[in-house]
Design a protein that fits this description.
It is a single chain. The chain is an alpha/beta fold and 230 residues long. It has one domain: Alpha-Beta Complex (Spore Coat Polysaccharide Biosynthesis Protein SpsA, Chain A), CATH 3.90.550. The protein is built from 8 helices and 9 strands.
Length: 230
């Protein structure tokens, strides 16, 4: 299969991003006109759904708020129904750089990996709050202790997955603990993985919406609770 024939979906979980989502989608459409763009609105309370409903966008909507993990799983499942080979998970807040998508997809196409994980610490990251840096380093240790995988960036929402090869790649953690669960899935499915540099664009807007320390603790508790309940 050549890259020209491969079907790629960009899967975007969306929740209350009415200020930025239209610009994010327009940039993606201009750079990747042949890719499917699948947006899963997780019951936004603002006008995110309307702003994202552009021509050519595949729009899905949760009728109740389930969380980012659930939105990603809905999008991945839909990408499979579209016959996609690869899926790129991409945030809706404008933090990710669309130009990073192409090398991630190429890595899958060249059989370098079954999943490509974005790393802000290998790439360009500006204006990262010190507290955020400490939290991310702590999450690396947590991921290593729970999965045995030592990564440079374990909680990055930018990744590319060979979904047609791994249709059993299933996210069950509905909320933010899905990021830790994905690392566990990589190990349990024995997926070949690599990390590649990606840019995270920290702006006043994204910093204001970022995770607090308490939310980060809740993510860890959610992950352990969800794992025990399986």
């Amino acid at each position: 299969m050549s890259l020209e024939n491969a079907k790629v979906a960009i899967v975007i979980p969306l929740y209350n991003e009415e200020k930025v989502i239209q610009g994010v989608l327009e940039e993606l459409q201009s750079l990747y006109p042949s890719y499917y763009i699948v947006v899963v609105d997780d019951c936004s309370s603002d006008k995110s759904y309307e702003k994202a409903s552009l021509k050519g966008i595949y729009m899905l909507k949760h009728i109740i708020n389930l969380g980012q993990g659930a939105a990603l799983q809905t999008g991945l499942e839909y990408a499979l129904t579209l016959g996609c080979d690869y899926a790129v998970t991409f945030d809706s807040d404008g933090q990710h750089n669309p130009y990073d998508i192409a090398p991630f997809v190429e890595a899958l196409e060249n059989n370098e990996a079954d999943i490509v994980l974005g790393s802000r610490f290998l790439g360009k990251t500006k204006n990262m709050p010190i507290r955020k840096r400490y939290l991310l380093q702590a999450s690396r240790i947590f991921t290593w202790l729970t999965t045995g995988l030592w990564l440079t960036d374990s909680h990055n929402g930018f990744r590319a997955i060979h979904i047609s090869k791994y249709p059993n790649f299933k996210i069950t953690q509905n909320r933010m603990a899905h990021a830790s669960e994905i690392i566990s899935i990589i190990k349990s499915l024995d997926m070949k993985y690599i990390e590649k540099p990606c840019e995270i664009r920290y702006t006043e807007y994204t910093i204001e919406k970022g995770q607090s320390m308490w939310n980060s603790i809740n993510i860890i508790l959610d992950y352990f609770t969800g794992s025990i309940m399986k």
